[in-house]
Amino acid sequence: MRDFYKILKSWGLYSDNNRNKTDHIYMFGNNMVEFIAADSAQKLRSQRRDILWINESNEFDLETYRQFSMRTEQKVILDYNPSDEFHWIYDMVVPRKDCLLIRSTYKDNPFLNASLINEIERYKEIDENYWKIYGLGLRGMSQAKIYNNWKLIDELPLDKNVDRFYGLDFGFNNATSLIEIVLYDDNLYWNQKIHESRLTTEDLIAKMIEEKIDKNIPIYPDPSEPEKIYLLKKAGFHIPMKSKDKALTDNKVKDGIDYCKSRKIFVTGRSVELLKEIKSYSWKMKDGKITDEPVKVNDHAMDAARYGSFSHSKKTYVGFA
Predict the structure, then answer these.
(1) Nearest Cα residue to 251 out of 221, 282, 224, 216
(2) d(CA 146, CA 281)
(3) What is this structure's pTM?
(4) Quick check: is 145 in a domain?
(5) CATH number of 77's domain
(6) Considering its fold, how many domains does the chain have in total?
(7) Same domain (yes/no): 245, 296
């Protein structure tokens, strides 16, 4: 929806008078564009439409698709990355005689900037399965997702005595991600607070103040950015520095993942980018085999959650003293 309004504005087609912000509707004369989140049965039974576009349709289950489709008069468009080897789209939609399958790749998109093109083309070297899916637009191989031990929740535990802290992954062109973490009853609860690209350290501090991040609660950031960590400490945020133990640096990513996999993980439904990442976070493939190294793509929220969860468990942290 943000992309839709950004494009309208860039083309000079946007008018605030045509927008209903409450119901997520935009009018073009007698034509209506409506954005619907498929998170309740009532929304699935909304009014009929002429054309339905389901974005990232491989994230939907078959029943959701059927509920939307049966209320669509003319055409249904499904877009998805073919990251699943087995999916209802391949069985229930693609074989239909009235279905047209269009395979497109990044080369068909004239709007991609050079950094995104370079990122996709890196997949050739770092992971053959990711290159097959995101570079060539071909159906992916079955592979082990890293986290299968998570569930969706509405809210974090309300108990005042929970152990609360944060994990932070710095970025600029890539997203800076701040994840709120609660350790409760030996389970991990993850909630996305900030996930945004092109943030300077000053921008990040302003965002953290805006989000009312408690300066008394520990924050475990990416230890490879000492200057940014220094500025956070200078702004009054609590960055615990108790050790120079190398166990928490990036060469021990597997240990951090193992710690997170050893507990139940609960993720709040409003953690949009975090949910996207945890669903696709995968072990790297080499010569058709799964390795012990995660694919370093779209993993900024995953890194932040791991930094916080594992570092807090060790009661130690590598960073800038």
Answers:
(1) 224
(2) 6
(3) 0.61
(4) no
(5) 3.40.50.300
(6) 2
(7) yes
Mean pLDDT over each residue of the chain, to the nearest integer: 87
CB 155 within 8 A of CB 206: no
Q: Which residues contact 93 (CB under 8 A, 6 or more apart)?
A: 65, 78, 99
Q: Is-contact 320 201, C-beta < 8 A?
A: no
| Residue 113: domain span | 2-135
**β pairing state of 163-169 and 219-221:** parallel
Cα(174)–Cα(159) distance, integer angstroms: 34
Q: Tell me the pLDDT tens digit for each residue of 99-129.
A: 999 999 999 999 898 988 988 888 887 777 7
8-state DSSP, 236: T
Under DSSP, the state recorded for 251 is G
Two structure tokens written together for 277 = 């990442």
Q: Give the pair of three-digit tokens for residue 63.
A: 């029943």
Task: Please give the structure tokens belonging to residue 314.
Answer: 């060790």
- Give the range with max mean pLDDT: 52-66, 138-152, 184-198: 184-198
Give me the pLDDT at residue 142, please. 60
The first and second tokens of residue 319, run together, are 């960073």
